[in-house]
Amino acid sequence: MRDVIRWKHAALLALAILAAGCSSNSKKELPPAELVNFKEEVVLQKQWSRSVGNGQGDIYNMLVPAIDGNTLYAADSKGIVMALDRMNGDVKWKKDLELPVSGAVGVGYGLVMIGTLKGEVIALDASSGEEKWRARVSSEVLAPPANNGDVVVVQTQDDRLIGLDASTGNQRWLYDSTPAVLTLRGTSAPIVTNRLAIAGLSTGKVVALDISNGVPVWEQRIAIPQGRSELERVVDIDGGLLLSGDKIYVASYQGRVAALDLQSGRQLWQRDASSYAGVAQGFGSVYISLSSGTVEGIDERSTTSLWSNDSLARRQLSAPEVFSSYVAVGDLEGYLHLLSQVDGRFVGRERIDSDGLRARPLVVGDMIYVFGNSGKLEALTIK
């Protein structure tokens, strides 16, 4: 696989390895599974399409767009940020930051927040694109910052969490954590509430901080490093956390998928899993894209597998998203697949971007938004 892994020791040297769905001593990497034929039950219809610069760029970025109200915000790796009408794709504003963007896009409370490879956080006015402030942090920002209207929370690649004043960008607090020796390139995006800032770390832990001062409120381990080599002991939480009601859903690489109580961090249930993409939740079930390329549906009450579809093996899947009665997931060849929530069978497929689909799809109402690696952004509905 083509994940980029970082060596976190002193200068944090970059390292490229084969690490998704194959072992470190494999002699020959198996190719992505061929797509299977099926009877199409659902047809996706394009509503609009736009190009957002060069998209994810040449390194393993995960630039997921964001939606606030009727506006969709997207950014490319070279610093182009766009605000689009999510219904018709009309451009409301466009700004070129002329900086290498690596963490995008966070939006909320009138701000659009972008993180860069140079360790900066830039806040733009959501209505005009005017720069409000920029702040320097300890290292590159690989995930979108989060904002509760008072504090902007940023997670850096060295496992630090930083609280910035939402009005000025001034630092309010810093939470320092010792990162794992070896880790997948990327970090999960922090989640904020009025009280807490929650983040997944490279050590396989989830931590919740008091958002006013950065003091830890609770900590929960999701995965325990195992194995002889550092590669075998990688347990990153990279796929992002999902907050639904009073539960947090989280998955780690070479670890587990779990549900946690938001206020206490108590583990409600867990199940062995390996994912660098993340989870989705809906209709009493949790859906996960495993690092092997299998998509799995899990019953929340019994934690048993409802179904498992392994036909997308080694196709480097995006995080799943619930869309109507289906589960949507993208792959390395740019196909968006729709699976039935009931039994996991394929019901629809559409090719969006031949460069691949890495970013999680976004769903609002009856429309799904897909951002391809080359910068192609499409909005689709079920025909």
From TrEMBL:
Metal-binding keyword on record: no
GO biological process annotation, one example: Gram-negative-bacterium-type cell outer membrane assembly
UniProt keywords, alphabetically: Cell outer membrane, Lipoprotein, Membrane, Palmitate, Signal
Location, primary (coarse class): membrane
Compartment(s) where it occurs, according to its Swiss-Prot or TrEMBL record: Cell outer membrane
NCBIfam families assigned to the protein according to its UniProt record, in alphabetical order: assembly_YfgL
Residue span, Pyrrolo-quinoline quinone repeat domain: 78-309
Membrane topology: Lipid-anchor
Protein family (similarity comment): Belongs to the BamB family.
Protein name as catalogued: Outer membrane protein assembly factor BamB
Signal among keywords: yes
Subunit and interaction comment: Part of the Bam complex.
Pfam families hit by this protein: PQQ_2
